[in-house]
Design a protein that fits this description.
The protein has eleven helices and eight strands. It has 295 residues and is an alpha/beta fold.
């Protein structure tokens, strides 16, 4: 995965709150092993804290301390080739450029959503959250939340190969949720039910498909500033890394690893095979109309 070295990065689309201090208590959820299993199965890659009853205590705005590294260090695509946080900026720029252009073709009004980088814990429009929640999109404030430490855990805890495009897949998945929010899908399918055929799983699989759609167009979507694609190269190996990451966070894989058995009735995101299948469908077709998991 390579970026245009000379292309400027728009850091306004990423809010760097790492090093900020959030007053008050962090998010809370059931304790012990049960709490861990619920967190891992229910939250990684997509669900906002309010879906699982995370506490809204301590939800005052963060106060700045050593935040803002992204704005200082991420200038061009060359930075995105070498630094994780700058790569996130570049992927956010590319994903949002694509959906803004695609939404125009479908006569859907697209509003940009910032990604918030944080460490430890943060306050959101969906309540307080900790890094243990994993990456998520909050419809309450139209933001994506991400602790970069998640990518290390994706490798060490979940056995993914990692790589730059594994990171890009995670980001693109969350912006798939933003598109669903704009389309009204999130509000229309928010029953809270679980299971292999639940709306929750269908919502997550559609976000995987939308991530694949963006990947299909990633090297052709034009940057708003330069008129050139920000991403210049995406290889088969990159796509394999994305598929590997999708499989690593499949409900069946996570359940087998953390509770020793697979219980499809409690699925919230879909199996490893399903997540790969829907990402591939989006990547192969490049057509969001092919991502109707609800049918």
């Amino acid at each position: 995965m390579q970026f245009d070295d000379d292309a400027p990065l728009d850091t306004s689309e990423v809010q760097d709150e790492r090093g900020s201090r959030v007053p008050g208590g962090g998010a809370t959820i059931g304790g012990g092993i049960v709490g861990l299993v619920v967190l891992v199965v229910g939250l990684f890659l997509g669900i906002s804290p309010d879906h699982l009853g995370l506490s809204s205590g301590g939800d005052a705005p963060a106060t700045s301390s050593s935040a803002g590294q992204v704005q200082q260090e991420c200038r061009t695509g060359q930075d995105a080739d070498t630094k994780d946080e700058c790569r996130i900026v570049a992927v956010v720029n590319s994903v949002q450029d694509y959906w803004a252009q695609e939404s125009g073709r479908h006569r859907i009004g697209y509003s940009k959503a910032p990604t918030v980088l944080f460490t430890g814990r943060t306050s959101t429009g969906c309540g307080a959250a900790t890094s243990e929640v994993g990456p998520f999109y909050c419809p309450g404030d139209k933001r994506v939340y991400l602790d970069l430490g998640f990518f290390d855990e994706l490798r060490t805890k979940f056995g993914a190969q990692g790589g730059p495009f594994a990171q890009a897949y995670v980001v693109a998945h969350e912006y798939g949720h933003h598109m669903q929010d704009i389309e009204g899908t999130l509000s229309a399918h928010r029953s809270g039910a679980t299971g292999a055929d639940s709306d929750s799983v269908k919502t997550e699989l559609q976000a995987d498909c939308y991530a694949g759609v963006w990947a299909h167009h990633a090297t052709t979507v034009k940057d708003e500033t330069t008129g050139r694609p920000l991403i210049t190269s995406l290889t088969d190996a990159d796509i394999r890394d994305g598929l590997d990451a999708a499989a690593a966070v499949g409900d069946d894989r996570i359940q087998q690893e953390f509770q020793g058995r697979v219980t499809p009735d409690t699925w919230t995101h879909g199996s490893a095979a399903q997540r790969q299948q829907w990402f591939q469908r989006g990547y192969r077709t490049g057509d969001m109309a092919q991502c109707d998991t609800f049918r």
